[in-house]
Design brief:
19-stranded mixed beta sheet; 4 helices; Diaminopimelate Epimerase, Chain A, domain 1; mainly beta; binds the ligand N[C@@H](CCC[C@H](N)C(=O)O)C(=O)O
Length: 287
Amino acid sequence: MKLKFTKMHGAGNDFVVIDAINQKIDFTPAQWKHLGDRRFGVGADQMLVVEKSTRPDCDFRYRIFNSDGGEVEQCGNGSRAFVKFVVEKGLTDRKSISVETMAGVIAPRLEDDGSITVDMGAPILEPEQVPFDTENLTGVKEGRDTLWPLTLELAGDKETVLVSVVSMGNPHAVQIVSDVDTAPVELTGPLIENHPRFPRRVNAGFMQLVNRQHIRLRVFERGVGETLACGTGTCAAVVAGIRRGLLDSPVKVDARGGQLSITWEGEGKPVWLTGPAVTVYEGEIEI
Ligand SMILES: N[C@@H](CCC[C@H](N)C(=O)O)C(=O)O
C-alpha cells in the first residue's frame, strides 16, 4: 500500500505521524521498524498513529511505536506533535484535546503562539509499578526519593550507579552526572536499558543540575538509542530532582535538540510539559 505520512519533530525527537482514521493501518513490528529505519525507510525515533478513540471522554487514540518496531505506552514530545497534526489536518476544530494512550489519558493544548502544553498525568513512583524489581536491594533515601543502586558490567569491571525510578506511563531510570557532555551515555545507556531489574526495559536519563530551576538532560531511549530530546524523560528527571530536594518547579530543561519546560506541584499532581512541535514535510511511501 501507499502510506501517507507527515514528518515532524519536537526539540529534535523526530516522528513519522500517520492518520489511521482515513487510512487503514495494520503493520507488523517489522514494518514499523522499516518505517523508522533512517537508511531503508523514512527514519524516525518514533512512529505516531492517530486513531479514533472508543472512550466517550477522549477525542483520539494515540499509539506509539519505537524505531525498533515495538509498541510503547507513552511519548511526551510526540503528544505535542499529535495535537499540532490533528489541528493542521482538520481532524478536530478544538485546540485542547483529550487523548487515550496505552498509559491513560493525556491532554495536549495548542496555544495561539504555536507552543504546546501537555498534561502528562501524575508520575508513578512505586518501584513495582514502574516496573523495577527491588528484591534484596537496599535503596538510599534522599529527600522524598529513594536512590537505587544498579550494578553495571563494563568490560569485566563492575560499576554501580544510583538511579531514581519513575514512570510517566513508560519506565525511566534517572541519574545525576556532573557534566552531560562527558557522561557515558552511549556506553552505559544500553546496559541500563537492558538491566535485568527492569522487566520491561527502561529509558536511561542523565541529568546535570545547572541551578534549582534549570537542568541539562540526555536520554538513552528504550528501543531507540540516544535521542535529541525525550519528553517523558524530561518529566521523569524533573520529578526525581524535585523529590530529591534539588529542584523547584518550574524547571527549564536543555536537551540536545531544544528546550522544554516542566511544571510539577508534587505527589499526586500532574506533570505539565511545554515545548515546540514542528512539521517538516509530507510524504508517501510504499509499504
Ligand atoms: N521520545 C519519547 C519517549 C518514547 C518512548 C520511549 N522510547 C519508551 O520506550 O518508553 C518522549 O518524548 O517521551
